[in-house]
Amino acid sequence: MTSPSERPQPASRGASRRDKEKLEEAREGLLARLAVLTGSKEFPRFDEALTHPSFANEVSGLADNQRLEFLGDAVLGLCVSEILGEENPLADEGALTRMRAALVNAEALAGWAREVSLGDALALGKGAHHGSERQETNVLADAVEALVACVYDAVGLDGARSLVREIVAIRVARGDELDVRDPKSALQEDVQAEGHPSPSYRVRDSRGPEHEPTFVVEVVVRDEVLGVGEGRSKRLAERAAAFDALKRRA
After folding, report:
1. Mean pLDDT of 236-244
2. pTM, whole model, 2 decimals?
3. Residue 225: phi, psi to the nearest 5?
4. Which of 90, 183, 203, 208 has its CA 20 to 30 A from that of 226?
5. For residue 215, with 0-12 CB atoms within 10 Å meaning exposed, 13-18 middle and 19 or more buried, which class applies?
6. Run of H or E residues at 214
7. Is the Cα torsion angle 69, 167, 152, 1 positive or negative in sign?
8. Which domains are seen in the chain, by residue range?
9. 153 — alpha (psi -120 to 50), left (phi > 0) or beta?
10. Given pLDDT bands bounded at 50, 70 and 90, which one contains residue 7?
11. Which tens digit of pLDDT belongs to each residue from 129-165?
12. Residue from 142, 145, 218, 244 carrying the catalytic annotation
């Protein structure tokens, strides 16, 4: 594979020259990070992992990162399950399941993506480039899963394990905080303990293509909005809203 500087790089549609340079710099930095983690500099599907569907839709024949995202979700789940089993030898299945959910949810993955400026390395379509998609939680989480698959495809499971360990390192170190109640259950218990009725959830907005919508949901008690969240399904958006409400009440 050619070096980053030698191969043509996709740039976000509607991007300025400085934006294109920033994308190139971000990708070179990310490649260097992967090289340190895995011991390899060859990642044939690296560009694909960082190509948002909005960009691929504008370039005939260009693959987006959705197939890699699908594979990366499975690889990520396997690697995180291994890590948690090693770090928590006495934890039961229920606790391990809750811990895994806390490590592989969109918020957690997007948190790491923001730490490494992954959004700057994404190729976006014209409309997405001028909007806020580059830092949207779901967009970043999808790209992280695609990146995991890209590494797995290039160097196998050992390389993917190294990347996943970095992605979840901080949260794994806080193991006690991972074994927590489901946020919807926790919020319901808290508000009922204060004498209020159970929270209700309502969809405030949905955006994106029909086949891959993003839902924005708010959680309400007595007509008061306690929190707002987004997700790739209504269930995930409700969990995110409950989590947001718990943070605000803390």
Report:
1. 89
2. 0.71
3. -80, 120
4. 208
5. buried
6. strand 214-221
7. positive
8. 17-178 (1.10.1520.10), 183-249 (3.30.160.20)
9. alpha
10. very low
11. 555 778 889 999 999 999 999 999 999 999 999 999 9
12. 145
The two tokens of residue 104 are 């592989």
Which two tokens mark 97? 């399941």
Q: Is 145 one of the catalytic residues?
A: yes
79-123 per-position pLDDT tens digit: 999 999 988 877 888 888 888 988 998 889 999 999 999 999 999
Please give the single-letter amino acid code of residue 119.
G
Strand partners, 224: 221
Phi, psi of 203 (to 5 degrees): -80, 120
Tell me the C-alpha distance between 177 and 128, whole Å: 35
Q: Is 73 one of the catalytic residues?
A: yes
- Residue 178's identity, in one-letter code, is L
The contacts of residue 49 (CB under 8 Å, 6+ apart) are 65, 68, 143, 146, 147, 149, 150
73, 82, 87, 166: the catalytic one is: 73
With a CB cutoff of 8 Å and minimum separation 6, the contacts of 188 are 198, 199
- pLDDT tens digits, 19-78: 788 889 999 999 999 999 999 999 999 999 999 999 998 888 899 999 999 999 999 999
